[in-house]
Amino acid sequence: MASHIGRRTFLATLGGAAAWPLAASAQRSEGTRRVGFLIGLRDDTEARARFAAFREGLAALGWSEGRNVEIVVRFDTADPDRNRAAVAEIIALAPDVVVTSNPASVAALMKAARTIPIVFTMQSDPVAAGFAESMARPGGNATGFAHFEQATVTKWLELLRQIAPGMIRVAFVLDPEDLFGAQYLRALDAPASSLGIQLTSVSLGDAAEFERAIAAFAREPNGGLIVPPSAGTGARRAAIIGLAAKHRLPAIYAFRYHAVEGGLISYGPDVFDLYRRPASYVDRIFKGAKPADLPIQLPTKYELVINLKTAKALGLDVPLQLQQLADEVIE
Beta strand pairing status for 251-253 and 223-227? Predict the structure, then answer.
């Protein structure tokens, strides 16, 4: 059983201590490049750690703040109005490249600023979203890193069934603001059918309605939750994890931080890797490469994390074999 605690503790500490570089002067020193960096919530420690990973990636390639690069951060939450304002502010600063993971931000940037290079990360299907012509040759002013694969969605269902073998019903948390939620849901149809699992969805939209929908779903036994990646599920993760615990619903999440913060189990790509790797594309764009010619890349590192404390609270006995497969077990 592998552990990444040391590396992740370092990143979390670095991210938590780092001040957000919000200000930017109209002029910059000669030879200095400007990166616009759009990320979620200002006070989110996870967002700080992700930014630290990107900053670390740039530094490893010779780009140091205060010497030859300026990074300006804005916060593009799931709220559409705040998102549009953040995108407008970034564009007004005339960056040499913009980095973001929010699909709504990518779409807004591509619509408003066709000449600014965009490096996105953590996109489910950039081609289907219209961000690129193909994975191999994006063709426009945006490229980056995707994190969706059919195998990942199937794995969510299989792992949840493995940790909760009595489960016969699954509610998929559908974020109405997410461009890819419906795609995830469709991808679950076949594996759910093959496992004899009844699949439904609950909308994340209105908080009170979402809470009522979860409560209604939990009234019948043998249910579980799948919580996919989106800006909304990330921003409201504490409420989702709390509802799963309150209604004793086994739930699987997309990223490690969900399990660290009390979720039962998570499976998905290494998020910090997906924020460190975009630095390589920023570096290449600074040196003259065009986003149109840089292929969109898929994850290379995945991680399975299990929270045994949550499992115990739910009355679940996690199979030893599953624990041995995990990259991290939280006790």
Answer: parallel
Model confidence over 6-41: pLDDT tens digits? 444 444 444 444 567 666 655 566 689 999 999 877
What is the distance of C-alpha 194 from the center of its chain? Answer: 28
C-alpha 125/C-alpha 32 separation (Å) is 33
Distances (CA, A) of 171 to 131, 199, 200, 253: 29, 6, 5, 12
The β-bridge partners of 238 are none
Task: Give pTM, 2 decimals.
Answer: 0.79
CA-CA distance, 200 to 78, in Å (whole number)? 23
Domain 5-147+271-301, CATH: 3.40.50.2300
Direct distance between the N- and C-terminal alpha carbons of the chain, in angstroms, rounded to an integer: 13
Q: Is the dihedral of CA 318, 320, 326, 327 positive or negative?
A: positive
**Whether CATH 3.40.50.2300 fits 150-269+303-330:** yes
